[in-house]
Amino acid sequence: MLYKTRYYTISTLAILMLLCSLNFNHLGIVAYIDLPTIVFVIISLVLSRFLDEKAQNSFLVGVGLFLISLSFIAIYSIVEDMTQLGGAIAVGILPMVYLSVYIFYVSNIKQILSSDSVAYKAEAFTLSRNEYIFHLGFVLLIFVSIVISGAGFRAVIDVPSLLVFLPLLATIKFDDKIKGLLLRQNLVLGAVTINFFISIYSVLLDSSSENIGPSLALMTISSTYALYLYLSWIKPQLSKTTLNYTKSEYMLYIVSSLSLFLPFVYIVLSK
User: Fold this and answer.
1) For the segment 137-175, what is each residue's pLDDT rounded down to a tens digit?
2) What's the Cα-to-Cα distance from 213 to each of 84, 199, 217, rounded to whole Å?
3) H-type helices in 33-176, by residue range?
4) Cystine design at 199: which of 31, 69, 174, 219 (Cβ 3.0–4.6 Å)?
5) What is the pTM of this model?
6) DSSP alpha helices (H): ranges in 157-232?
């Protein structure tokens, strides 16, 4: 019962956070609803149930990429008006948005909570003097960077973007601290990955809008908050345990880099 309560609480909060974020986006939630995509994703989820639990997520990622490839083939074959190309490609990216939400906010949470507990030392989660100095120095570094950038603090403070921390609150007071860390790592990686696909979708769907810049900025702010949480609070504690998931870390950095780089390239090339 406790497992199910935690599972539904964390997953529900994560999905609610995403829906609220999309609602504050200038496109609105309706822009992310596409019936054929929903049908394809549901069929993919049903098919994945016939595989081993560890293979399901890999299958779903592959299906997402496969559906994007099929969509692009159809788009390139049918679309004659190049002004419609961006919107058509955007719809092809939607499967990855849906599947990423399922993988990070449903499947991964279930797998972490149902996995065997790992032995750990309580002192691994006690902050030392050096770590307090590290956190203070990191905050000062961020403060100086914002001042030097010239954008000001108002550019990096967004109340709706703080919703990224909402599902994390349900993982703080956890009896199994390792699972709590892994849940936070998964939620952070999920937020950055989903924000990446949503940002690309927003640019492609409405590249002529004056709101593209602010929209991408809001998505980037959420990812920035998530990265700060990972670098300052999750990674240091994970490194002191027997678990140190470098694959997740590399994926987080790669997706973060792409989320910053690709939209900018698209905007520059489209001018």
Assistant:
1) 988 988 888 888 777 777 788 777 788 788 888 887 777
2) 20, 10, 6
3) 35-48, 53-78, 85-102, 108-114, 129-149
4) 219
5) 0.81
6) 177-205, 212-229
